[in-house]
Amino acid sequence: MTSPLLSVQGLTKRFGDRTACNEISFDLWPGEVLGIVGESGSGKSTLLNCLAGRLTPEEGSVLYETQSAGIVDVHHLTEARRRLLARTEWGFVNQDAREGLRMGVSAGANIGERLMAIGARHYGDIRRTASDWLERVEIDLARIDDSPTVYSGGMRQRLQIARNLVSNPRLVFMDEPTGGLDVSVQARLLDLLRGLVDRFHLSAILVTHDLGVARLLTHRLMVMQRGEVVEAGLTDQVLDDPQHAYTQMLVASILPV
Ligand SMILES: Nc1ncnc2c1ncn2[C@@H]1O[C@H](COP(=O)(O)OP(=O)(O)OP(=O)(O)O)[C@@H](O)[C@H]1O
């Protein structure tokens, strides 16, 4: 029997007297893509940041099964070990690619840096792998030495995805990866992400307010309202036959038939 990659128990995060996430518990299984959906302000990003160790919850635990050191409690690791974990086993794709890229170095270096962080040293190999990944995310190789500052929004997002996936992460956190882009750019990025998720059997947790994105990319969904998970289940089931009044409202407003 396999064990969960991530196991979350009773996670609560408050900002002053506002509870952004309230007693959230769930498991993520290897190879699974879990979507977190809900309206703006429902607590999705806060939850994601608590899972990835970027925010510290007031209560609860986030247990992660590491590749070599067994199960660790993300919030009881030292800062140095958490950073190491983030660098070697996780990816984090931000909505704003500028936050996930180093804007002062070339596209190739953005990918190469990640490889060097996991021990790659041979310049030729690093350059070759960076080139492969640029191709994989449909960026013209002629742009490898350009800085991402001269990339379009869609290209930057594809570069951020390449930078995250090049190190073969076991778990990828994504916060609105297609947000803020033109509709046609979004569609292409979604196609690309879906292909990569399938090809690399990614385990991922994806935050989105877009139920169309959730439908395309996720296996399972958690629906959040005011910091609570109000409904959870297989994505198609939740979207085709929502049980909670809030989910019914979301589905009716976002996916009109
Ligand atoms: N740093 C912070 N300080 C104070 N309150 C915060 C902070 N971050 C989030 N909140 C509050 O926590 C609640 C949840 O916010 P969060 O950003 O997690 O929601 P969200 O569902 O991700 O929304 P969006 O889709 O707009 O990003 C909101 O009421 C928000 O105002």
UniProtKB/TrEMBL annotation:
SMART domains: AAA. It comes from the Bacteria. Transmembrane segments: none annotated. Pfam families: ABC_tran (PF00005). Keywords: ATP-binding, Nucleotide-binding. The keyword ATP-binding applies. GO terms for biological process: organic phosphonate catabolic process. GO terms for molecular function: ATP binding; ATP hydrolysis activity. Residues 6-251 form the ABC transporter domain. InterPro entries: AAA+_ATPase (IPR003593), ABC_transporter-like_ATP-bd (IPR003439), ABC_transporter-like_CS (IPR017871), P-loop_NTPase (IPR027417), PhnK (IPR012700). PANTHER family: PHOSPHONATES UTILIZATION ATP-BINDING PROTEIN PHNK-RELATED. NCBIfam families: CP_lyasePhnK. Belongs to the ABC transporter superfamily. This is Putative phosphonate transport system ATP-binding protein. It comes from Enhydrobacter aerosaccus.
